[in-house]
Amino acid sequence: MGCFRCSGRSSKRSERSNNNSIKRNDQTRTTSGSLKVKPFANVKEEGTSNDDQLSLDVKNLNLVDEVSKNVRNNGKLAQTFTFEELAAATGNFQSDCFLGEGGFGKVYKGHLDKINQVVAIKQLDRNGVQGTREFVIEVLTLSLADHPNLVKLIGYCAEGDQRLLVYEYMPLGSLENHLHDLPRNRQPLDWNTRMKIAAVAAKGLEYLHEKMKPPVIYRDLKCSNILLGEGYHPKLSDFGLAKVGPSGDKTHVSTRVMGTYGYCAPDYAMTGQLTFKSDIYSFGVVLLELITGRKAIDQKRDHGEQNLVAWARPMFKDRRNFSRMVDPLLKGQYPVRGLYQALAIAAMCVQEQPNMRPNVSDVVMALNYLASQKYDPQIDPVQGSHKTPSRHGPKKDNDRSAGNVSPESNGDS
Ligand SMILES: Nc1ncnc2c1ncn2[C@@H]1O[C@H](COP(=O)(O)OP(=O)(O)OP(=O)(O)O)[C@@H](O)[C@H]1O
Ligand SMILES: [Mg+2]
């Protein structure tokens, strides 16, 4: 794919420096250099309310012409909480309530007495422009959005240096937690659940691309940003990098390159030209992760297999490879034809040329069909010999007799 070659954790976001090389950007440190926004200080003016502080952030970040305009016209800001209320909800951010940590900061589970609801509270731990920018964009974007496949922003707190986001609590955590490095007591996701997650997540993306006014490019689609509710119902989360899509005759938005190694479309990484098709590429990577159980970037693998798309692309060419691509943790419990079709969709999404990638509504249609074709291991044959499954072990190619769907040639799935 030639997108990001990096060292360090694969899930970290990155930014392209001016000389076109990709540099790793440790999210716990202030983003440096090439930001186009004005220098900004996290100062709270005496007596400023939560709401006013957000307006100040918007002004200082020069965001008045972006999403904020639309929030003023169409939206309603999420409610505000005091820092004291959020500290009380999490027992002062105690370690028992800790859910996880990303580039933005730590996430805690809490109970907000005021609204009698269990919530997830994300606390920004970085000072500086980029963190505050992501905070503001997140609040504004989610204030405009309303869809069952997008995580709900319940409210926020912007007091002095403190920036916190309050979300609905997603009891099953992120998709990443269910696909990679599973703890011993966690069952791998079965085929039907994987296809359902893909279809519902695609529907969330369709809402951003085609239903929202204005349409939004997500820019941060990855497994850790797909959160799971009861029954593995997925919702997209983290909209701090979202961008209003191109308007009028424009085909792209020119912007500095932000995203996550392994998920970022090569065309966007090279040119800084962001399109809806950049999200489709990232979606293709997620779909490949669901099918193969492999990470977008995995430095523990052999050199040629570290980048999922680079590994998968040559394999798409010959369907005899397909059974070697599927996650060994499925233990052969998948429909052969469904596998071919899922790989066909993924292959189309991760094509090098952005205009060759499908629109999100085509992806939704194809995945809805796939998810409706339920696999039943009691009825359908279990593929291959999978008595001792291993993610790294040798695999058997035994699916030559099944359907003739090839991702290179077939777009009808
Ligand atoms: N609303 C939520 N409900 C339950 N758990 C959550 C929620 N939001 C986040 N988490 C947990 O917190 C972890 C960290 O999330 P966060 O979005 O901060 O980081 P990330 O997505 O892993 O990385 P990045 O900052 O690069 O996007 C998630 O993996 C998830 O387990
Ligand atoms: Mg996240």
TrEMBL record:
Membrane topology category: Lipid-anchor
Transmembrane feature ranges: none
GO biological process: pollen tube guidance
Compartments (UniProt record): Cell membrane
An annotated Gene Ontology molecular function: protein serine/threonine kinase activity
Comp. bias regions, Polar residues: 401-413
Region (Disordered): 1-38, 377-413
Binding-site list for ATP: K122
Keyword Ribonucleoprotein: no
Domain annotation Protein kinase: ranges: 93-370
SMART domains, sorted: S_TKc
Gene Ontology cellular component terms for the protein in this record: plasma membrane; pollen tube tip
UniProt keyword list: ATP-binding, Cell membrane, Kinase, Lipoprotein, Membrane, Nucleotide-binding, Serine/threonine-protein kinase, Transferase
InterPro entries: Kinase-like_dom_sf, Prot_kinase_dom, Protein_kinase_ATP_BS, Ser-Thr/Tyr_kinase_cat_dom, Ser/Thr_kinase_AS
Coiled coil residues, start to end: none
PANTHER family given in the database record: OS07G0668900 PROTEIN, SERINE_THREONINE-PROTEIN KINASE PBL5-RELATED
Family label: Belongs to the protein kinase superfamily. Ser/Thr protein kinase family.
Name assigned to this protein: Protein kinase domain-containing protein
Organism encoding this protein: Manihot esculenta (Cassava)
